[in-house]
């Protein structure tokens, strides 16, 4: 019997998990395609492929170095261009998570943004904002790291680092760029395009979430790691199921039909929420986590609508809302043994919510504002009415276009 | 060189296989979406996501306990809510198989069923019918278990436990709920909706089948396990290929064109059939298994049509028919060494066919009948004509709807 | 701690990689579906499923034996029907790569080919042409094998063996079968059908490429193998990203819009190019490899158009062009340690380009020519105008058909 190298098997594990995280990322593409009008199809594909690659370039050049290149509590400083990096699997898996964060971050301004605006904000987000935030929590040198910092934060899977940060960008971008034309007129209709594509995307996200959460441990070969991974899988699924089903009941009480979109949204919200503590909850806690997350989603939706923020894909409610709630919930309910006392963690987790939110706003808000000022952010009015595809990607969708016009014409 | 824990690597293996089984399960969603009318799109997505989660809840609460919680030969009695369960990966993989069985079971009554009817039958099936059936064959305490019972049954991958049981529900549900409106009028046309989606679903099923069959062994780290897994993969693929190609030839002899739907159906049928003995056939036997399976599929189709059973997705022929044939074929052709003599196995496998079929009918038939009686089973006539989406999910599909009307109007 | 068998874990690794290669293969189906007219949908699904299975049969019966059955430097001669084969995982993974090659090979003649013509050429390609070519480079007995032949060729991942060979068939088939009706009239429009499906296919290809490249090593358990695999992943992604982004810039300089199709094509081209040396490039070289590959793609496109070769999916530019450039690039830039001196490799790699190209032409050109002569190659003119589906698969696409007619009518 030849020997088996633990490092190599862990690398294998991490690469496979990384592929599933990319699956998650591409899933988001199909959710976007499914929920937007047919006259922005090419634009959304363009956006999602470019951000995959811009993220890779930014993360490879300096993002990974800022995130995991040792350095200070604030920022890393080694492994630029992965030079000298001892573990390329670690790079790949973290790149894939960064790509998920980027796609979430830029998912709220579809149907009204200039391609060049996407490219710039992808680069800044994936090269600076996200890596530095992830350094704080996930690098052993980070000031929020649970292993050796004085401010240990419980965020195992990324409710805060990935989804809160990404969702905050969504909020900022929506705020700066404004609503779609006629969004707040009474006759506006969400132009739904392709429900099967949205379902495909949501399925891909659910399956990808499993790789996303089990890979967060970076290893599988030691005794007990397999069961820990399985606990994470179970928690993710139970939280998604309980959030989705509870959301379905809540929604059914409010309306006379079963709303499939809302069902999908609350499911993803539950999975996002449970990430922060998926390694330490017992299954029953995850069920509760999912149910509360569903409730929190409805509150967020109400707030978003009340404040007239136009977020076609509900990115803010699903990811920012659940990210915040995930960190708070983990502060209360995650296992205490390793971290030392409830009071401390909940305080630290609340602090992390504030710090991560503020950091993201502090960088991205000026950026979007400047882009708006130099006119690379929002497409002209006539383009938005007819769809970006026609003008920026030379695609005409005769069928789609006509349908759009019918819906928009009344104004 | 650090040590590698065998248990942890097996857990890793089982989680990955489980994800592919979920991939299989979601594949079925897209087959359904692709083969039904556009005015039931939201309903089908709703059905498939809810059954994923209802199944999870039912299986977690008591299904897994009934299936693998030791206990008697008939039913298990430990590990409710996975409490005390020594292996959560085992839970996850078996949950995924249960989800496949559920989706097969409820696949035959699309386009004419109330949402609430789905939810109830999913729960009963995933919480009682399937777990108890799987206990008999796959738990070491089960009375059909090949390892230590006196009635060893050869069903390695689930031709019987998953597909025969699921397919039986499909038959029962079709029988109770009846055909779609105008199904047996001469002008009825199968309202095909989206062939690429059906192809996507079928591709997902084929890839998922690989995880489904290799995971059935629950382990990979011992010498020889890798080759056994590879043999299963080869057998699944060869059976699918031979069944599909033979079905194509048979069908081409009957008609003047190449029927893609029939080709896909026979392919899946071949894979279902070979499951029962995929671990013990030599590749040549699998080719034969596939070809006979294809023949059996045509007989089933003929019987179904002759008896005027309306099964839009051919679930009964593909899964019930092939499940039965798979158990019979395994009774004759699977390796004899471990089980002790051909005569015994074929007898036991035939008995298993009868027992599994009767058990499923005994529970599900009264359930469907009661649901029909209290009117939560079939949607009203006008809803069926216009599509469930409009009434139960508040989705209008202007294009799809118009097309439907054209096809239905003549009556 | 129980022992873990290295062989079994490698088998596990190879099966998982093989599934991802199948994912790649099915991805090509959706690219085809997305980029062709709706009136050939069933035909394309038919083509892709049959070639999956015809390839399996041919490869199982004798293809694998010719490729890896020891034998002479030219052809192997053992393991027919996998009998006596010591490693079935090796068979599965190589079958999956063969299926990718087949699907590439027959991807250029869609919309105008008889089903029977596909079947015959799939069989010949997967049973003879590809296996023998792969024997030369990848079997230790092959005369181009880097391990022990006198003509070591650097083709780690298959730029030459899989993509150059497949792409050559595409060129030959286009040349023999000729352009689509009216292709070179000024009013011809590429009948684009479904951009989201094309994006789905491209995403599947990108994810599948990761399994495709890491599996090429056949093992993972030895120390260092995990990092080698990660290097391959990084190189594939960087080459794809740099090729895609550089292609986007090049294309944007030529036109006033962002061309999503071209972006996807150059991305895949970059990944194809880097395959040949993905195990030995440092990441910076991969970025350069991608960028040059993008440039090479534009030259190929110009050549193809200039020579009036009608290749609806750009198979020749993407796969043949990048395959050639990949072997040349690897000849110059791959690590020299193991192979002994730059001059030698570049010479051998150039020789391999010529030999692989000539071999494929020598077998496939006569075959296509004979098929054309006996009229099983091209569908009749009226069928092509109305779409193959209607005549060969009994599928009518009322919507799609009408759209087609509008585009074709002017002539």
TrEMBL record, chains A, B, C:
Domain Ammonium transporter AmtB-like: 13-395
The keyword Nucleotide-binding belongs to this UniProt entry's keyword annotation: no
Coiled-coil blocks: none
SUPFAM superfamilies the UniProt entry points to: Ammonium transporter
Keyword annotations: Ammonia transport, Membrane, Transmembrane, Transmembrane helix, Transport
Family according to the record: Belongs to the ammonia transporter channel (TC 1.A.11.2) family.
PANTHER family named among the record's database cross-references: AMMONIUM TRANSPORTER (PTHR11730)
Protein name: Ammonium transporter 1
